[in-house]
Design goal:
Blueprint: H1 2-17, H2 26-33, E1 37-51, E2 54-65, E3 81-93, E4 96-109, H3 110-131, E5 164-165, E6 171-176, E7 188-192
Parallel strand pairs: 5-6
Antiparallel strand pairs: 1-2, 2-3, 3-4, 6-7
């Protein structure tokens, strides 16, 4: 009887050791990417089963290459934020998910994407001014019968948010100056404190 109880106990331990997500989730991908990158966000687009315990996950992530891994990614300067899409093959083991392969399909510097989005927003402000006799918009938002801005607003891709503030706080997103007494009145800027890899202040763009 004692042997039977012991066997049941061992079986329960084995089952509990294999517990966890049946398919990989964003936390699993983030943990495995962190071997080479500092990871600020991961979104899974698709997960496909390759076998009973093997899955391929398609993802997008905001990554910063670690100095220790910079030799693997020569086209990415260490410390630069990159928005990447990739495919990772994972196998489930008794200890969790194990990375079998990781293929980066596309990677673009977050600053480059941010500046593209900044040009879009400035173009929208310019269109508003043309149709309102040079008057600046009071806020970066669409009115029921006046659609000038993309919906949703494009993101500031370095931190990954599209929030808009009207008093600079450096916490990410966009800063729009709607103070008519300011020399920066009507301008929209990157709402981040600090400098980029070239030594330029983000706010100066």
């Amino acid at each position: 009887m004692k042997n039977v109880i012991a066997l049941v106990f061992v079986c329960l331990l084995l089952v509990s050791g294999c517990s966890g997500p049946k398919v990989p989730d964003s936390k699993n991908i983030e943990g495995l990417l962190s071997e080479d990158f500092e990871v600020s966000s991961v979104k899974i687009a698709k997960v496909a089963a390759k076998s009973a315990d093997s899955y391929e996950a398609e993802y997008t992530a905001r990554l910063v290459v670690k100095k220790s891994s910079s030799a693997k990614f020569k086209n990415w300067p260490a410390g630069e934020t990159v928005v990447a899409s990739g495919k990772m093959l994972l196998t489930r083991t008794g200890k969790g998910w194990e990375k079998k392969s990781n293929k980066i399909i596309e990677a673009k510097p977050a600053l480059m994407l941010t500046l593209e989005n900044l040009r879009v927003l400035r173009g929208s402000i310019g269109l508003y001014m043309v149709e309102h006799n040079g008057v600046m918009p009071g806020k970066i938002a669409n009115e029921p019968k006046e659609i000038y801005f993309p919906d949703p607003l494009p993101a500031e891709e370095i931190t990954g948010t599209n929030r808009v503030v009207y008093s600079f706080d450096g916490a990410g997103g966009w800063y729009y100056c709607n103070d008519s007494k300011s020399k920066d009145y009507g301008n929209i800027r990157i709402n981040i404190n600090g400098i980029d890899g070239k030594g330029k202040n983000y706010r100066s763009y």
